[in-house]
Amino acid sequence: GESVGLHLPTLSVQEGDNSIINCAYSNSASDYFIWYKQESGKGPQFIIDIRSNMDKRQGQRVTVLLNKTVKHLSLQIAATQPGDSAVYFCAEISGNMLTFGGGTRLMVKP
Amino acid sequence: NAGVTQTPKFQVLKTGQSMTLQCAQDMNHNSMYWYRQDPGMGLRLIYYSASEGTTDKGEVPNGYNVSRLNKREFSLRLESAAPSQTSVYFCASSVLSSGANVLTFGAGSRLTVL
């Protein structure tokens, strides 16, 4: 069936560097894509979303890129900070249903 | 403003026991959801309620029942717990915003079935 997945299970970066977290999706009918951040012991927290008719959206220190040609989604975090350490999930929305990918753990080294 | 509140935060059950996870939201959201999260995996949808009075199965509904008690509350019941149901359970709620169904999650309930 259709699914959302991630390329890298763990990403380790130096504090101050930029981070890029990738996600592949297979449902070409998805309307929206969302990135969630989950810190240890907490529920997922919304970071940023992007509509399927866009290819880029920027937030505060975060940018999401959508490449519909290759069905690829990425989250870029600028000047990564220790507080960015968490598991990041991409999720796709088709109709009213939200499907999560498997998650990538981001570790920020001081 | 508490957002989404889940109880209990931790629970240990023996195989065959029953229990109910409670969830309440104070954001006047129409839709509510129950997900489970297993180690190293993403969240999988168990059941959802698009609006008060309706419930629908998600990806992994077997072994669970739900009740949308009112607009604020959505409970998840395990009638006969099994070790395979050991997981962290998340309740979430949402209101459609510009077509994007952004979910607000609770802090989770960690369930262990022995």
Question: Which stretches of chain A are poorly predicted, pLDDT < 50 over at least 5 residues?
Answer: 1-8
- Contiguous helical run count of chain A: 0
Taken from the alpha-carbon principal axes, the silhouette of chain A is globular
Uncertain runs of chain B are: none
Main sheet makeup of chain B: 7 strands, mixed
Query: Largest contact between protein chains?
Result: A-B, 23 and 23 residues
Please identify the structural class of chain A as seen in this structure: mainly beta
Number of E-type strands of chain A:
11
Mind summarizing the main beta sheet of chain A?
Answer: 6 strands, mixed
Mass-distribution shape of chain B: globular
The H-and-E topology of chain A, N to C, reads as EEEEEEEEEEE
Number of helices of chain B: 0
> What is the helical fraction of chain B, as a range of percent?
under 10%
- Compute the gyration radius of chain B: what is it? 13 Å
| Average pLDDT rating of chain A | 88
| Percent of residues in β-strands of chain B | over 45%
Q: Radius of gyration of chain A from the CA trace?
A: 13 Å
Strand content of chain A: over 45%
Describe the fold and architecture.
The complex is a heterodimer of chains A (110) and B (114). Chain A is mainly beta and 110 residues long. Chain A has strands at residues 4-5, 10-14, 19-25, 32-38, 45-51, 56-58, 62-67, 72-77, 86-94, 97-100, 104-109. In chain A, the strands form two sheets. In chain A, strands 2, 4, 5, 9, 10 and 11 form a six-stranded mixed sheet that branches. Chain B has no helices and eleven strands. Chain B is globular and about 40 Å long. The mean pLDDT of chain B is 91. At the A-B interface, β5 and β10 of A face β5 and β10 of B.
